[in-house]
Structures are given as structure tokens and as C-alpha cells.
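Board notes (copied after class):
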Amino acid sequence: QVQLVESGGGLVQAGGSLTLSCAVSGNIFRLNAMGWYRQAPGKQRELVAGISRGGRTNYAESVKGRFTISRDNAKNTVYLQMNSLKPEDTAIYYCNSDYSDTWPPKGQLPWGQGTQVTVSS
């Protein structure tokens, strides 16, 4: 059974940086694309960044140039480096994948707890 464990969130001032990590158990990590998603209060969850098993990436327009997604296949871990953070980036951040190699990733697996990111102005 796949388990997703996110970490690295916190409180940061606008303009600051955070790096999120997602540890993935199970074989899915090596086979499939991974995505970082976020959900702000009162809003739908959205895909922030995706990375294919080969390293191809895509980003939401709102984070392009500020966020970088990467993956370490040896550690079964995907990262999200977030720079120049804005108050509107405040949300719970989740990682997810799919039961097959889907691009962009759609987040079909059971969701983890997520990690809270709060950006103060």
C-alpha cells in the first residue's frame, strides 16, 4: 500500500523560502509521475507542480519562476523548493501520484496529511 508523508511546512514571511519533502513508500514512486498540490481555505485543491519519472516538469502559472519540483529516485522522495513566497501561497500542501503513469499527474492515490504553509505579509 502506498503511503505519502509530507513535511517541511511552516510559517514564513513574504519573500521567504521553504523546502517541502514528500516521502513515498511503495513501488509507485519509481514508475509514475509525482505532483505537489495545495488547498487554501475555501478553495479547491490544485496542482502546483508535477514531475515525470524522467524529470519533465510543469508548473501552475501562479508559481512559475518561484517554485522548483525535483525528485530523488534513490530516496523515494519528491521535493518542492519554494522561493519568493507570497501570502496567497498560504495553503496545505500535499504530494500525490496515480495508479498508472499519468501526465500531468492527477492525484489518484489516497491523500496524506499534508503540510501547512503560512506566509505572512
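Comment from the instructor: The CA atoms of residues 15 and 84 lie 4 Å apart. The chain has a mean pLDDT of 94.
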